[in-house]
Each structure stands twice: as structure tokens, then as C-alpha cells.
Fold this protein.
Amino acid sequence: MSKAKKSEPELMDKIISLAKRRGFIFPSSEIYGGLNSCYDYGPLGVELKNNVKRLWWKTMVQENADIVGLDSSILMHPKIWEASGHIASFTDPLVDCKKCRKRFRADHLLEAARALKPQYLKEEPKDVSELKCPECAGDLTAKRDFNLMFKTFMGAVEDTASQIYLRPETAQGIYVNFENVQQSMRKKIPFGIAQIGKAFRNEITPGNYTFRTREFEQMEMQWFVNPKEADHWFEVWKERRKNWYLALGIKADNLRFRPHAKDELAHYAKAAFDVEYNFPFGWKELGGIHNRGDWDLSRHTKFSGHDFTYRDEAAGESFIPWIIETSAGADRAALAFLCDAYTEIDGGRTTTTESNKEMEVVLRLHPALAPIKAAVLPLSKKPELTKVAEDLLVKLSPHFMTAYDEVSSIGRRYRRQDEIGTPYCITVDFETLQDQAVTVRDRDTMKQERISLAEVAKYLQDKLVL
Ligand code: ATP
């Protein structure tokens, strides 16, 4: 038995192929040749991503009396993006190859070139102007800033006065609603506002599958604090965010926190950490924890004229609240969970004869994340068995997502469920007709237990704790 190594270059191809074949993720607009870096979540993918979002919301909002939710609109007043600094500086440095016309992010090229230094270069390149195109060695254009915000127009007239933006982050919707939420919910600092929603960025170089796309979903919680308590809460939220990923089964070795280097830190940020996951294509950002100081509410005070000063009666002080931001990408989290769960078993485990042994894939997703919680499998298509199986399905489906499969051998059906991460398979066999019980098989241990039909829903609910 051997497990796929995370650094195998072909591992990502296998995961992408599984995701397409088994209905997790499809290329968008596929019949028209696809649309660069856009993806559609299929029937199992939408369950996985909904579970990611639901579990994030549960931890943040449901289980935390000091955090409330929000769903602000994607289209917002354009002045918001002036205040936030996005119009002036939400840019990536861009260079084009004059020969092959490929487009690159200058900072990514520099990073890659610097990584070569120990082996191949005498001196680190200081600037992208010292580099050539990595694809064809052609000359590169001078670096220029490219704004990542998608523009559109509101109303019938397409002029600069009607120009608005698709939001590049969900956070601003939270900041501008700070007082609405605080007053309507009678919240006292410290408290948080959580939001999940779509964000759009016209990324120069999208890629690595769903890791970097131009349309994606963010899960952000902004925690408003007394400036004196900001450092304390920064540490608290770092710990809590790490524990969320670990509790949902991410292997500790594949998760790390990386402090932002001085030149990465936004000019207003007091401290920032990236949460990184060891993807098959390397360590990459899943989310971040940022101490944003009073930058956001001060800027909105300045640009809107609305004073966000908060009166802390307990402390006898007035101040503009500081913000500890925790941000995460729903798509990146779903991809990390998928990669972490992907396990290959050489020679298989469901076949017994040497002649038909083959490599099997098990998606060891945490049960709470698994798209399907239980599959009902009648041993044969005989009506007396399928009737019991269908009745059982009706009993289980109000409680959690179920599947039904009566096609091909039981071993093959187990494998199909293992491959999509279903934690429990329930077999209805001929004995069921006598003892009114079924066999429940555990995906990971392959242990089988005989459970009475009357108790199977309760048995699974106790095990699943969603
Ligand atoms: P990166 O450095 O990877 O471009 P970022 O630091 O710009 O990310 P933030 O602005 O902090 O990202 O956004 C918060 C989160 O939103 C990210 O941690 C990530 O999970 C998600 N996110 C950002 N950009 C994208 C994208 N293009 N595709 C998918 N998810 C994204």
C-alpha cells in the first residue's frame, strides 16, 4: 500500500481528471472551447464547496455569539473603491514578451528567477528589466501597472459617470455596514461581521486550476477591536483559523503560517500572516490574517464624511475601531481539501483475486465535507431488495445527502463511492429480508457493522456529527 507523494507533478493532473470524471469541477463553457480560468462546480463539487462554506459559517457565526453575518451587494458605490485604495493601487506589475506576446506578472518572474540563484546565477536579478521571457527568451516590455478590477456600467449610458466595478473583495461591504450592523444588532466591541460571497479580479496570469481564477468566492470575517487589544486578537484569530483547517482533516504537515515580509506588507498593515497549503504545485496562500489598524474605517470616514468614531463606554474611550481581518477563499479551501484527501492505494483493497487487482483511489474527506454522506446499495436488482433499499433512502435523505447505486458488482460500487469520498456505504442483502438489518461499511477502516433498519439513520447521524 503506498500513498501518492504530494510533490508528484502528475498528481494535479490526476486530481483534475477525477474532478471532471466524477462531477466535481468542469471547465466553464466547455462546448465553446472553454473560457480561460473559469470553472463550473458539478453536482459533487457544489456539495463540497457548500460544505466548506457552511462549516466556515457554522464556526464563525453559529458558534460565536460575537459574530454576525452579512450579505452585501456585489455592485457598490464607486467611491468605496477610491476610499479603499483599489482604484489607485489595486494593481499587479505586468510585462509582455515582445516576441511570443505572452503576458507575465513581473513579481512572479522575479521570484522564479531569484529561486534559481543558488544553482544557476551569480547574482540575483534586481529588477524584471534584467530578465528575458521564460517561454521563448524574447525581450520583455517595460513593467507597467495593471488594475485588477473589472469595470462595468450602471444604467443605459456607458460613460465614465456610470462606470462601476465588480467588487474585488467582500471586505468593503462589511466596513461600510459597520455601523448598521453594530447598531441594529446592539453589538459592543470586540465583535465581528462575517460574509461569504463572490469577488472578481482580472488576474494577469490566472492558473493552477481553481487556485487563481478571475471569479471566485471569499469567506471573510472582520473583527472590530479597541486598538489596545488588536495584538491580542491577532494571535487569537491566527490560532482559531489554523484549528479550523486542522479540525476538518488537513494534515498538519501540509499547513503553515507565513509572516509577510516587510516589502509584502500593505503600507497600512500592522501585521500580516498568510495561511499556506502545500498544494501539488507548491506552498500557496489559502487565506490570511491581517491587523489592518484603523485604515479602513478612517478612509471611509474621510471619503464619505460619515464619522465612524466608536464610543466604548466600558473603557471610557472613543476611537476609530481597528480591524483584525481573517480572509479565506472558498475555492482554494475546497481545492486544498480535495488535494489533501486524494489517496492512491496500489493494488487496491476491494478486490481479492490477484488477476483483477488495480490501483484504487480513496478520497479521505472529513465526513462533514464529503458531498455524499451515505450510499445505499442493494446487493442485487431483485425487486424485494430494491424495495427495501428505496424505502431506506427515503428515510435517510431528509437528514443528509445520500446516493443510490444498484449497477455492477458490490466491489466496484464501493470503489465508486470511495473515489468520491462517501464515508458510509449501506448494503441491503438477502439476509436483510430476514433480520431487518443492513451492513454499514466505513470508507476508511472498511469495517462492516450490521445495524437494524430502524436504527441506521440514528447510527449514521451520531457518527457524522455535521
Ligand atoms: P494572491 O497573493 O494569491 O493573489 P491575495 O493576497 O491577493 O492572493 P487577498 O486579497 O488577501 O488575496 O484575498 C483573500 C483570499 O481570497 C485569498 O487568500 C484567496 O484565498 C482568495 N483569492 C484571492 N484571489 C483569488 C483568485 N484570483 N482566485 C481564487 N481565490 C482568490
